[in-house]
Amino acid sequence: MKFPPHKALIAFLFCSPSLHAAVIDVIPGSHNAPILSITYSVNGSDVVQNTEATDVVSNSDTPVYVKSVSISDGSPVVLSHFNTEGAVVVNVNSQQLTISGIGVFNNGAVTTSNVGLAAYADAVAGTSMDTDLKNFTFHDLLSNTVSGQGADYDLLFYRGLQLDDYFMVSERWGNSEFEVTALDQNGNPYANANVLRIGANGGVIYTPDGYQVYDWVTGYAASTNVATQSQAITLFSVQKFFESTIGPSGPVFGLRINNDFEADFKIVGISANSFSDNPLNPVVPETSACLFALAGTGLLLRRRR
After folding, report:
1. H or E element that contains 267
2. Domain for residue 172, yes or no?
C-alpha cells in the first residue's frame, strides 16, 4: 500500500521502532528469561536445585558458585559459560567515596567505598569476574545519599557480549532495583538502546517482604551480611537492550550502573556458548591485576559528576 507523503510520515512514526531509549522493567514474567533450574558448586560438590527455595536454607561465608542455569527462552537452554576473564570499573561517582554503607562483600571480607578509589573499584570489578553468590556489592546507606546524582560507575568487560548472550543478576533478598545502560566499545551509551531496570518496584525503594521482584530464590545467604536474606537471581537477554529500537545493536562492552534504590547485587555475563570468540574490549586488560596500570593512564580515575 502506498501513502500520500503526509500519511506516509504518520505511518512511519506509528510503525517504526523507537527513536529514543525506553526504560524496560525486568521482573518475573516481564522481559526476564525464566529460570528452570540452577546447578551450584559448594565445597567442590555439585548441588542441583530444580525448585527455588522459599527463604534461607543455608547461611555461611563459604563460597557458593553458580555452575550453570537452565532457562526457558522460547525453548529450554542451558547456560554454562561465564564472561569472567576480566573487567574494570571507571567513572566512579566521587560522592560514594565519602559515604559510609557502600562497599563490596566477599565471603566475609569487606571493602568499603571510603577506603579509596582504587581498592573500591577493583573490588567492584571483581564481583563480575566470578560466580560466587557470597561476593557482591552492598549499598546500605548509613549517611548522606547519592540518590538522584547520576550513575554510580561504569563496569567494562574484557569481552563484549553479543545479542544471544545473557546477564545473570543476583540480589540480596531480591527486593531492590537498579538500572543498567549498555555501553559501546568507546565506553559510551548506545544512543537508542533501552535502559533496563532490574527488579523494578514501581518507584518504591524496596519491596518490604523480599524476593517478589527477582525470579529465583537461591536459599543461600551470607552469615556475616544479613544472614536472614538469601540471594535471589534474575536473568535477561542482552537483546533486551535493543528490542524495538533502531541503530547499532551491540555488542555490549560494558554497563553504566545507576543504583539509586540501593540494591545489593552482582551481575555477570552468561551464555550457552563460550565467550572465547566474543570481541575484545580495546580498553580492558584481561585481569584486574592491570587496574593500577590503567590508573596510571587516568582511565580509572575519571569520575562522573
Report:
1. strand 265-271
2. yes
